[in-house]
Amino acid sequence: MSALHFGTRTLPYGVVSPSGGRPRVGVAVDDVVLDLAHLFGPSSEFAAASLNPFMAAGPARWAEVRDAVRARVDQGVESGQAGVHAAGAVSVLMPFEVADFVDFFSGIEHATNAGRILRPDEEEPLKPNYRRLPVGYHGRAGTVVPSDVDVVRPAGQIRQGDEVIEAPTRRLDVEVELGYVVGVPSEHGRPVPSDRFHDHVFGVVLLLDWSARDIQAWEYQPLGPFLGKSFATSISSWVVPLDAVDGAWVDGPQQEPAVLDYLRVDEPRNPSIWLELELEGHVVSRPVAGSLYWSPAQQMAHMTRNGASLRTGDLYGTGTISSFEVEGQGSLLELSWGGSREFSLGGGAVRSFLEDGDRVVLRGWIGGDRSRPMGEIAARIRPAL
Ligand code: MN
To answer: Alpha helix (H) ranges present in the chain?
Structure first.
């Protein structure tokens, strides 16, 4: 793979395979990968093809390892040293085994924009439950893929006037999100309070929620998203531990009406992650994650309020991170206002939805600080089969 450009502050975890070697856990430092199976030994939890054993170990182990990694990085990490791989000399693999995948709808700007686009006749764009609970749905864990995996245009049932046809989607969209990754499982039957967030959640990734709007529009009532979403979800290949977003947490919008007790949080709710969505080499949007209405701690508390358990490798998406300003809108549904207008890619090219061959890239920076990158997702759209 090519350059990583991670600097020395984020120190994210991933799974790499050196040429001819077995997969192992590594940390991205600048443009090299520090091999934790070398640093901690071949019998450690890092001699594994996923982060799951390390993520399950819990906060004390996470802190101990991060201290050891920092100490090693402070000594200087360079390609050619034992246990250090050049980025170009490794394959970067899926970082963890996804257990369950849930996607929320916690961007109030996106929910409002989508309500106005899809239900223009209704006065109130938000449903009555929106400010009461973090709305979400269960997605498909088995089709979560890392960066650099192409997305094949899905086909399915589409309503066309009075007809229903089987055809490739004509409204292929993507939603800009963050995804939170669970490390420590919880007991089935026992809700997890919002203040236990840091005891269970290991880290955060960038997430692209691919969406076929025409398939979704026909199928979603009354049970919610299904095949219009389940064909693919992309995540960044490097998992950023929550430690790395320290100091970047901000208060979201005021929650009114007051939330029920189990959804109360005392601390600032969301990390301020500045994002950049690029399409065919042109930045089309710059959403910022700090304004999400529901926080990851509230989402976790809600997801387990009925006694559903957390499992190591659970992934939950924030929902589309968006804005009322076009510069920060995190889906093509919004940028094209339901397909009613085209937006520019520069050089005369325009889009409403994604075309075959399009290359989509999402990048992010913690607190907007270019020395604290979140990594990236890159994916290309392939024609329908
Ligand atoms: Mn989504």
So the answer is: 36-39, 52-56, 59-74, 108-118, 197-200, 213-219, 296-303, 332-335
Query: How close is the Cα of 140 to the center of ligand 1, in Å?
Result: 12
d(CA 177, ligand 1 centre) in Å: 7
Q: Which one of the listed residues 5, 38, 85, 110 is annotated catalytic?
A: 110
Q: Tokens at residue 148, please?
A: 């650099």
| pLDDT tens-digit readout, 274-309 | 999 999 999 999 999 999 999 999 999 999 999 999
Q: Which of 58, 93, 128 is the last residue of a domain?
A: 93
Same domain, 60 and 170: no
106 and 71 within one domain: no
Condensed to tens digits (0 to 9), the pLDDT of residues 223-251 reads: 999 999 999 999 999 999 999 999 999 99
Residues 280 and 320 in one domain: yes
